[in-house]
């Protein structure tokens, strides 16, 4: 599905995500699972009820293995694969109580992350034939940023900065506080010379100031199509250009045609619709 490198977050982070999910879901114990015989074993089949791009298999597996280290899990797909509606994509066998207790948390991870990957894949397809790279943003579910950014890669997208520490994005309020685009850029280069410097601009005059200040990348915030094309003509490759604002599947294709380098889409991780998955259990 994707040519973007798929490297899951560290196993320690995935396990920490699972522990938080279990803490809020299981608490002191699964009262309903206690209705099942303690030694009962079962098998289960996971079906994807709609076409989707998969992401989150490591989180799904970690949920079941946390409660039953001996659980058997067999997948027919990998993260980044597109699956057809009605596909049985995974089979499990293990302790019945562990299967029913871990089910909801496991599905929550897989549905959310596959939803992110599926939405990303749709936006990537909409810019096919151009050189534009589709980026995510920091508008992620609290506590699951690295998970969602991994899911974006599963869908063929690329990651913007992970947080406030690995790149500098100078926005309107930073410019106001610094006094000017030039002053903000100079401070950024002095304090963090190795970090990417991106400056958000709202008009062509600010674009020229950002170019003069030596920005590595310039974000065109809510530019019209004609202004996007003019910005590309003005920049002439002196800085990478990124479009942000009013981006959806109905607009991203036209935006990509302007010749910019990146289009960032907050909806990839913010407006996620969970993929429809079903796990059905059968006692041995």
Attribute tags:
284 residues; alpha/beta; 6-stranded parallel beta sheet; 4-stranded antiparallel beta sheet; 20% strand; elongated
What does this structure look like?
With 284 residues, the protein is an alpha/beta fold. 40% of the residues lie in helices and 20% in strands. The chain has 10 helices and 12 strands. The strands form 3 sheets. Strands 6-11-10-9-8-7 form a 6-stranded parallel β-sheet. The chain has a 4-stranded antiparallel β-sheet with strand order 3-5-1-12, covered by helices on one side. α9 links the parallel β10 and β11. α1 packs across α2 and α2 runs antiparallel to α3.
Q: What layout of secondary structure does this protein have?
A:
Blueprint: H1 11-25, E1 41-48, E2 52-53, H2 57-67, E3 72-75, E4 82-83, E5 87-95, H3 96-126, E6 133-135, H4 145-154, E7 168-170, H5 172-178, H6 181-191, E8 197-201, H7 204-212, E9 217-221, H8 225-235, E10 240-244, H9 252-256, E11 262-264, H10 267-270, E12 277-283
Helix pairs in contact: 1-2, 1-3, 2-3, 3-4, 7-8
